[in-house]
Protein backbone atom coordinates (compact mmCIF):
# COMPACT_ATOMS: atom_id res chain seq x y z
CA UNK A 1 0.00 0.00 0.00
CA UNK A 2 1.40 3.40 -0.99
CA UNK A 3 2.18 5.90 1.78
CA UNK A 4 2.49 9.67 1.62
CA UNK A 5 6.10 10.86 1.85
CA UNK A 6 6.65 13.91 4.06
CA UNK A 7 8.94 16.71 3.00
CA UNK A 8 11.77 17.87 5.25
CA UNK A 9 9.79 21.00 6.23
CA UNK A 10 6.78 18.85 7.24
CA UNK A 11 9.03 16.56 9.31
CA UNK A 12 10.59 19.55 11.10
CA UNK A 13 7.13 21.03 11.80
CA UNK A 14 5.89 17.68 13.20
CA UNK A 15 8.90 17.28 15.50
CA UNK A 16 8.49 20.87 16.68
CA UNK A 17 4.78 20.31 17.48
CA UNK A 18 5.59 17.13 19.45
CA UNK A 19 8.34 18.85 21.45
CA UNK A 20 6.13 21.83 22.36
CA UNK A 21 3.17 19.66 23.31
CA UNK A 22 0.88 20.92 20.54
CA UNK A 23 0.47 17.32 19.35
CA UNK A 24 0.22 14.14 21.43
CA UNK A 25 2.21 11.12 20.26
CA UNK A 26 -0.34 8.71 21.76
CA UNK A 27 -3.16 10.36 19.80
CA UNK A 28 -1.18 10.00 16.61
CA UNK A 29 -0.70 6.27 17.27
CA UNK A 30 -4.45 5.82 17.80
CA UNK A 31 -5.22 7.61 14.52
CA UNK A 32 -2.77 5.37 12.64
CA UNK A 33 -4.54 2.28 14.00
CA UNK A 34 -7.92 3.46 12.67
CA UNK A 35 -9.00 1.95 9.37
CA UNK A 36 -8.34 4.37 6.51
CA UNK A 37 -11.12 4.62 3.94
CA UNK A 38 -10.56 6.01 0.47
CA UNK A 39 -13.47 7.00 -1.75
CA UNK A 40 -13.63 5.32 -5.16
CA UNK A 41 -15.66 6.66 -8.07
CA UNK A 42 -16.82 3.76 -10.24
CA UNK A 43 -17.64 6.20 -13.05
CA UNK A 44 -13.94 6.97 -13.26
CA UNK A 45 -12.63 3.42 -13.10
CA UNK A 46 -9.02 3.47 -14.25
CA UNK A 47 -8.47 1.40 -17.39
CA UNK A 48 -4.80 2.14 -18.00
CA UNK A 49 -1.83 1.41 -15.75
CA UNK A 50 0.92 3.92 -15.02
CA UNK A 51 3.22 1.91 -17.26
CA UNK A 52 0.80 2.28 -20.19
CA UNK A 53 0.37 5.98 -19.51
CA UNK A 54 4.15 6.41 -19.67
CA UNK A 55 4.21 4.62 -23.03
CA UNK A 56 1.50 6.91 -24.39
CA UNK A 57 3.47 9.89 -23.11
CA UNK A 58 6.59 8.73 -24.99
CA UNK A 59 4.61 8.24 -28.20
CA UNK A 60 3.13 11.72 -28.06
CA UNK A 61 6.39 13.39 -27.07
CA UNK A 62 7.71 12.03 -30.35
CA UNK A 63 4.50 13.22 -32.06
CA UNK A 64 4.99 16.70 -30.56
CA UNK A 65 8.51 16.91 -32.03
CA UNK A 66 7.11 16.02 -35.45
CA UNK A 67 4.37 18.65 -35.13
CA UNK A 68 7.05 21.30 -34.59
CA UNK A 69 8.42 20.56 -38.08
CA UNK A 70 4.95 20.42 -39.70
CA UNK A 71 3.62 23.64 -38.16
CA UNK A 72 6.91 25.55 -38.59
CA UNK A 73 7.01 24.67 -42.31
CA UNK A 74 3.33 25.47 -42.96
CA UNK A 75 3.09 28.62 -40.84
CA UNK A 76 6.62 29.88 -41.62
CA UNK A 77 7.19 30.83 -38.03
CA UNK A 78 8.93 29.42 -34.97
CA UNK A 79 6.54 26.93 -33.32
CA UNK A 80 7.04 25.06 -30.05
CA UNK A 81 4.97 21.98 -29.12
CA UNK A 82 5.30 20.02 -25.87
CA UNK A 83 3.31 17.42 -23.93
CA UNK A 84 1.79 18.99 -20.81
CA UNK A 85 -0.21 16.06 -19.37
CA UNK A 86 -1.65 12.62 -20.12
CA UNK A 87 -4.83 11.81 -18.13
CA UNK A 88 -7.62 9.23 -18.20
CA UNK A 89 -11.06 10.70 -17.57
CA UNK A 90 -14.69 10.04 -18.62
CA UNK A 91 -15.58 11.35 -22.08
CA UNK A 92 -18.29 13.54 -20.55
CA UNK A 93 -15.70 15.34 -18.43
CA UNK A 94 -13.53 15.97 -21.49
CA UNK A 95 -16.45 17.51 -23.42
CA UNK A 96 -17.30 19.77 -20.47
CA UNK A 97 -13.69 20.97 -20.26
CA UNK A 98 -13.43 22.26 -23.85
CA UNK A 99 -14.79 25.71 -24.88
CA UNK A 100 -18.37 25.97 -26.15
CA UNK A 101 -17.04 26.86 -29.59
CA UNK A 102 -13.73 25.33 -30.67
CA UNK A 103 -12.05 23.35 -33.47
CA UNK A 104 -12.83 19.62 -33.33
CA UNK A 105 -11.15 17.37 -35.87
CA UNK A 106 -12.47 13.79 -35.65
CA UNK A 107 -9.91 11.31 -36.97
CA UNK A 108 -10.61 7.72 -37.98
CA UNK A 109 -7.66 5.37 -37.36
CA UNK A 110 -8.29 2.13 -39.28
CA UNK A 111 -7.78 -0.75 -38.69
CA UNK A 112 -8.51 0.30 -35.08
CA UNK A 113 -12.12 0.95 -34.11
CA UNK A 114 -13.40 4.29 -32.87
CA UNK A 115 -11.98 7.74 -33.47
CA UNK A 116 -9.39 10.15 -32.10
CA UNK A 117 -10.63 13.68 -31.42
CA UNK A 118 -8.18 16.53 -31.95
CA UNK A 119 -9.42 19.67 -30.20
CA UNK A 120 -7.62 22.88 -31.12
CA UNK A 121 -8.15 25.77 -28.71
CA UNK A 122 -9.62 28.90 -30.41
CA UNK A 123 -6.71 31.02 -29.20
CA UNK A 124 -4.13 28.99 -31.12
CA UNK A 125 -6.52 28.20 -34.01
CA UNK A 126 -6.94 31.90 -34.83
CA UNK A 127 -3.17 32.41 -34.58
CA UNK A 128 -2.71 29.63 -37.15
CA UNK A 129 -5.36 31.16 -39.41
CA UNK A 130 -3.74 34.58 -39.15
CA UNK A 131 -0.37 33.15 -40.22
CA UNK A 132 -1.93 31.18 -43.10
CA UNK A 133 -3.61 34.36 -44.35
CA UNK A 134 -0.38 36.36 -44.23
CA UNK A 135 -0.67 37.92 -40.76
CA UNK A 136 1.74 38.02 -37.83
CA UNK A 137 0.08 35.09 -36.02
CA UNK A 138 -2.16 37.08 -33.68
CA UNK A 139 -5.16 35.55 -31.96
CA UNK A 140 -8.62 36.85 -32.81
CA UNK A 141 -10.47 35.60 -29.73
CA UNK A 142 -13.38 33.17 -29.81
CA UNK A 143 -14.40 31.30 -32.93
CA UNK A 144 -17.93 32.37 -33.81
CA UNK A 145 -18.48 31.10 -37.32
CA UNK A 146 -15.69 30.03 -39.67
CA UNK A 147 -16.07 30.89 -43.32
CA UNK A 148 -15.68 28.17 -45.97
CA UNK A 149 -12.18 29.44 -46.79
CA UNK A 150 -11.10 29.49 -43.13
CA UNK A 151 -12.57 26.02 -42.54
CA UNK A 152 -10.72 24.67 -45.58
CA UNK A 153 -7.42 26.24 -44.46
CA UNK A 154 -7.60 24.87 -40.91
CA UNK A 155 -8.75 21.45 -42.08
CA UNK A 156 -5.92 21.19 -44.63
CA UNK A 157 -3.38 22.22 -41.98
CA UNK A 158 -4.62 19.60 -39.50
CA UNK A 159 -4.66 16.92 -42.20
CA UNK A 160 -0.95 17.53 -42.75
CA UNK A 161 -0.38 16.32 -39.16
CA UNK A 162 -1.84 12.87 -39.90
CA UNK A 163 1.38 11.54 -41.43
CA UNK A 164 3.20 12.49 -38.23
CA UNK A 165 0.56 10.67 -36.19
CA UNK A 166 0.98 7.57 -38.34
CA UNK A 167 4.77 7.66 -37.87
CA UNK A 168 4.56 8.29 -34.12
CA UNK A 169 2.26 5.28 -33.66
CA UNK A 170 4.19 3.00 -36.05
CA UNK A 171 6.16 1.44 -33.17
CA UNK A 172 3.01 -0.19 -31.73
CA UNK A 173 0.38 -0.16 -34.51
CA UNK A 174 0.14 0.45 -38.25
CA UNK A 175 -2.71 2.97 -38.49
CA UNK A 176 -4.02 5.02 -41.41
CA UNK A 177 -5.39 8.26 -39.89
CA UNK A 178 -7.94 10.19 -41.92
CA UNK A 179 -10.32 13.04 -41.10
CA UNK A 180 -13.93 11.87 -40.85
CA UNK A 181 -15.64 14.92 -39.28
CA UNK A 182 -14.92 18.57 -38.65
CA UNK A 183 -16.95 20.44 -36.00
CA UNK A 184 -16.82 23.69 -34.01
CA UNK A 185 -19.49 22.83 -31.41
CA UNK A 186 -18.65 20.00 -28.96
CA UNK A 187 -22.35 19.48 -28.15
CA UNK A 188 -22.88 18.08 -31.65
CA UNK A 189 -20.09 15.56 -31.15
CA UNK A 190 -21.16 12.28 -29.54
CA UNK A 191 -18.78 9.63 -30.81
CA UNK A 192 -18.82 7.47 -27.67
CA UNK A 193 -20.76 6.97 -24.44
CA UNK A 194 -20.44 9.85 -21.90
CA UNK A 195 -19.13 7.45 -19.22
CA UNK A 196 -16.53 5.85 -21.48
CA UNK A 197 -12.95 6.31 -20.21
CA UNK A 198 -10.72 8.26 -22.59
CA UNK A 199 -7.07 9.22 -22.64
CA UNK A 200 -6.57 12.97 -23.00
CA UNK A 201 -3.13 14.13 -24.17
CA UNK A 202 -2.70 17.88 -23.74
CA UNK A 203 -0.15 19.58 -26.00
CA UNK A 204 0.98 23.15 -25.39
CA UNK A 205 1.53 25.03 -28.67
CA UNK A 206 3.34 28.36 -28.96
CA UNK A 207 3.29 30.34 -32.20
CA UNK A 208 5.26 33.55 -31.77
CA UNK A 209 3.76 35.28 -28.73
CA UNK A 210 0.50 33.30 -28.82
CA UNK A 211 0.01 30.09 -26.84
CA UNK A 212 -2.83 27.58 -26.71
CA UNK A 213 -3.66 23.94 -26.23
CA UNK A 214 -4.25 21.05 -28.60
CA UNK A 215 -5.99 18.14 -26.85
CA UNK A 216 -6.07 14.60 -28.23
CA UNK A 217 -8.94 12.48 -26.91
CA UNK A 218 -8.46 8.72 -27.45
CA UNK A 219 -11.28 6.39 -26.27
CA UNK A 220 -10.43 3.18 -24.43
CA UNK A 221 -12.24 1.14 -27.10
CA UNK A 222 -9.77 2.46 -29.70
CA UNK A 223 -6.70 1.45 -27.72
CA UNK A 224 -8.11 -1.84 -26.39
CA UNK A 225 -6.76 -4.08 -29.23
CA UNK A 226 -3.21 -2.74 -28.75
CA UNK A 227 -3.19 -2.05 -25.02
CA UNK A 228 -0.84 -5.00 -24.41
CA UNK A 229 1.76 -3.28 -26.63
CA UNK A 230 1.86 -0.28 -24.29
CA UNK A 231 4.00 -2.12 -21.75
CA UNK A 232 7.70 -1.62 -21.06
CA UNK A 233 8.31 -5.31 -21.87
CA UNK A 234 6.97 -4.82 -25.40
CA UNK A 235 9.02 -1.65 -25.89
CA UNK A 236 12.19 -3.45 -24.77
CA UNK A 237 11.54 -6.27 -27.24
CA UNK A 238 10.76 -3.83 -30.05
CA UNK A 239 13.98 -1.88 -29.47
CA UNK A 240 16.06 -5.06 -30.03
CA UNK A 241 14.26 -6.03 -33.24
CA UNK A 242 16.65 -6.43 -36.15
CA UNK A 243 15.64 -5.09 -39.59
CA UNK A 244 14.47 -7.80 -41.98
CA UNK A 245 15.83 -8.40 -45.48
CA UNK A 246 12.99 -6.49 -47.14
CA UNK A 247 13.61 -3.38 -45.02
CA UNK A 248 17.33 -3.50 -45.82
CA UNK A 249 16.63 -3.79 -49.56
CA UNK A 250 14.17 -0.88 -49.44
CA UNK A 251 16.79 1.22 -47.68
CA UNK A 252 19.38 0.34 -50.35
CA UNK A 253 16.94 1.32 -53.13
CA UNK A 254 16.23 4.66 -51.48
CA UNK A 255 19.96 5.36 -51.13
CA UNK A 256 20.67 4.33 -54.74
CA UNK A 257 17.91 6.65 -56.01
CA UNK A 258 19.20 9.64 -54.03
CA UNK A 259 20.46 12.51 -56.20
CA UNK A 260 23.77 14.26 -55.52
CA UNK A 261 25.28 17.35 -57.07
CA UNK A 262 28.62 16.72 -58.83
CA UNK A 263 30.84 19.74 -59.57
CA UNK A 264 34.15 19.86 -61.45
CA UNK A 265 36.13 22.85 -60.13
CA UNK A 266 38.35 24.39 -62.79
CA UNK A 267 40.14 26.55 -60.27
CA UNK A 268 39.83 29.50 -57.92
CA UNK A 269 40.88 33.16 -57.95
CA UNK A 270 41.02 35.99 -55.43
CA UNK A 271 40.09 39.46 -56.68
CA UNK A 272 39.19 42.70 -54.95
CA UNK A 273 35.68 44.12 -54.78
CA UNK A 274 36.84 46.99 -56.99
CA UNK A 275 38.03 44.58 -59.72
CA UNK A 276 34.82 42.53 -59.38
CA UNK A 277 32.61 45.58 -59.88
CA UNK A 278 34.67 46.59 -62.90
CA UNK A 279 34.24 43.23 -64.69
CA UNK A 280 32.65 43.38 -68.13
CA UNK A 281 31.90 41.00 -70.99
CA UNK A 282 35.15 39.71 -72.54
CA UNK A 283 37.29 40.20 -69.43
CA UNK A 284 39.50 37.31 -68.36
CA UNK A 285 39.94 36.12 -64.77
CA UNK A 286 43.28 34.40 -64.19
CA UNK A 287 42.80 31.24 -62.08
CA UNK A 288 45.33 29.98 -59.57
CA UNK A 289 45.28 26.47 -61.12
CA UNK A 290 47.60 25.58 -63.98
CA UNK A 291 46.14 24.06 -67.17
CA UNK A 292 48.47 21.12 -66.60
CA UNK A 293 47.05 20.33 -63.15
CA UNK A 294 44.14 17.89 -62.72
CA UNK A 295 40.68 19.10 -61.59
CA UNK A 296 38.99 18.32 -58.28
CA UNK A 297 35.53 16.72 -58.47
CA UNK A 298 33.18 17.64 -55.60
CA UNK A 299 30.26 15.37 -54.64
CA UNK A 300 27.94 17.55 -52.64
CA UNK A 301 30.43 19.78 -50.83
CA UNK A 302 33.10 17.10 -50.31
CA UNK A 303 36.17 16.69 -52.60
CA UNK A 304 35.92 13.14 -53.93
CA UNK A 305 37.89 12.57 -57.18
CA UNK A 306 40.84 13.86 -59.23
CA UNK A 307 40.00 14.22 -62.94
CA UNK A 308 41.19 15.68 -66.23
CA UNK A 309 39.00 17.76 -68.56
CA UNK A 310 38.06 16.77 -72.09
CA UNK A 311 35.21 16.43 -74.58
CA UNK A 312 32.80 13.64 -75.49
CA UNK A 313 30.60 14.13 -78.59
CA UNK A 314 31.25 17.91 -78.59
CA UNK A 315 30.25 18.15 -74.91
CA UNK A 316 32.57 19.06 -72.08
CA UNK A 317 33.43 16.09 -69.86
CA UNK A 318 35.91 14.95 -67.22
CA UNK A 319 37.75 11.67 -66.88
CA UNK A 320 38.25 10.44 -63.30
CA UNK A 321 41.90 9.64 -62.60
CA UNK A 322 41.99 8.82 -58.90
CA UNK A 323 40.26 9.13 -55.53
CA UNK A 324 41.16 12.18 -53.45
CA UNK A 325 41.84 10.04 -50.34
CA UNK A 326 44.23 7.74 -52.21
CA UNK A 327 45.99 10.72 -53.78
CA UNK A 328 46.49 12.30 -50.34
Structure explained in plain terms:
This protein is 36% helix and 24% strand. Helix 3 (50-75) packs antiparallel against helix 7 (162-169). By secondary structure, it is an alpha+beta fold. It has 3 domains: 8-41, no CATH class; 50-241, CheC-like (Chemotaxis protein chec), CATH 3.40.1550; 262-327, Surface presentation of antigens (SPOA) (Roll), CATH 2.30.330.10. The protein has helices spanning 8-20, 25-33, 50-75, 91-97, 122-132, 148-159, 162-169, 220-223, 232-239, 245-256, 273-277, 324-327; strands at 79-90, 103-108, 115-120, 178-183, 197-207, 210-219, 262-265, 295-299, 302-312, 315-323.
Q: What percentage of amino acids are in beta strands?
A: 15-25%
The chain-level structural class is alpha+beta
The CATH superfamily of the largest domain is identified as CheC-like
Instruction: Please state the oligomeric state of the protein chains shown.
Output: single chain
Output the number of helix runs: 12
| Distance N to C terminus | 70 Å
Summarize the structure.
The chain is of the alpha+beta class and 328 residues long.
Amino acid sequence: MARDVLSQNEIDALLSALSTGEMDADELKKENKKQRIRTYDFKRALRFSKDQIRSLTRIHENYARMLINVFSAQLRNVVQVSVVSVDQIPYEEFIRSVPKVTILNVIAVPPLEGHIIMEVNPNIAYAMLDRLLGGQGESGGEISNLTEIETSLVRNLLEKTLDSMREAWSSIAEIEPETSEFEVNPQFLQVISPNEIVIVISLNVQIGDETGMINLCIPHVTLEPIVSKLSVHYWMQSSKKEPNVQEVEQLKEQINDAELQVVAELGTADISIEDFLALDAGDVIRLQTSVHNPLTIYVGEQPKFIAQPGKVSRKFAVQILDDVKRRN
